[in-house]
Design brief:
2 domains; Muramoyl-pentapeptide Carboxypeptidase, domain 2; alpha+beta; rod-shaped; about 280 residues
């Protein structure tokens, strides 16, 4: 085998640094043994055929020197292995820099996708996104939240497992797609993960025109949700509260929240039965 073929066998583009170093060591060892053998043969000829004493002595020294050289090569390998058995296990640490592109995020286990659409339309920074309605019509943590930034993104079916965007309604999105603020995605993901097996939630609207709520029309940080797959409105309300959402009851029926009666508001008459959910912001 030619030297370059020998090195190429170990140091190919698909090989590791460990294999390359091992190959270089093996090749060096083979060359050293061949040279030592050659020197020993030359020394033997000098010793056997030399007429002068000094020639015989040179041949003897050459033979002894080749033996010493071989001993050093093998002993050094043993010593290196004894010091560190992983002496040839080094690896390069490399960094690959990629060109930055506008964020496009792949969907969850069900498929789907989301993509940056536009900044939150007309959203002050910060702004109160929710003011509690009349007493008894909302349920959840009694806090007001503010928002500072956040982009409006569209999500399709499968982006957030368990949450199914409906689309094709008042928001003007295509069927199976809804526009929301990216800041509420983590809260919706946690909600989807808490669903019982086989259940799901329809996301009927988030960001879009035609709402009385500023969290719909300005920031897209609230969501109209409808239970699906056999999930009831009461179960959906309980899951929302457990996950830190504030909820306005627009289901068209009376629900129980923390032992208290939660009557529906009148908004359901214009947008259909749903729960108006305000997720906790990060």
């Amino acid at each position: 085998m030619q030297p370059f073929e020998f090195i190429g066998t170990y140091c190919s583009s698909n090989g590791s640094l460990q294999a390359c170093l091992q190959g270089a060591y093996n090749m060096g060892l083979a060359i050293a043994i061949a040279l030592a053998f050659l020197m020993a043969v030359i020394g033997a000829f000098q010793y056997l055929l030399g007429a002068a004493i000094n020639v015989k002595e040179d041949g003897k020294k050459r033979i002894i020197g080749s033996i010493y050289g071989l001993a050093v090569i093998f002993v050094s390998g043993v010593v290196l292995y004894w010091i560190n058995p992983s002496i040839f296990s080094a690896e390069f640490i490399t960094f690959r820099v990629s060109e930055l592109t506008p964020p496009t995020l792949e969907g969850g286990a069900e498929g789907g996708s989301w993509q940056t659409n536009r900044p939150a339309a007309g959203a002050p920074s910060p702004t109160t996104i929710y003011t509690p309605t009349a007493s008894g019509s909302d349920c959840g943590p009694a806090v007001r939240q503010t928002i500072n930034g956040g982009r409006i993104v569209w999500i399709s079916n499968g982006t957030i497992p368990g949450i199914r965007p409906q689309g094709g309604g008042r928001g003007g999105e295509p069927a199976g797609q809804e526009d929301i603020n990216e800041l509420i995605v983590p809260a919706l993901r946690r909600l989807g993960q808490s669903l019982p097996s086989g259940k799901f939630i329809w996301l009927t609207d988030a960001f879009g025109p035609g709402h009385r709520s500023r969290c719909h029309t300005q920031t897209g940080t609230c969501a109209d949700l409808v239970p699906g797959g056999g999930l009831t409105f009461q179960q959906l309300l309980d899951l929302l509260v457990q996950n830190g959402f504030r909820v306005v009851n627009e289901s068209g029926r009376t629900l129980q929240c923390g032992g208290n009666s939660l009557p529906p508001t009148t908004f359901a008459h214009t947008s259909g039965a749903h729960l108006h959910a305000i997720p906790p912001l990060p």
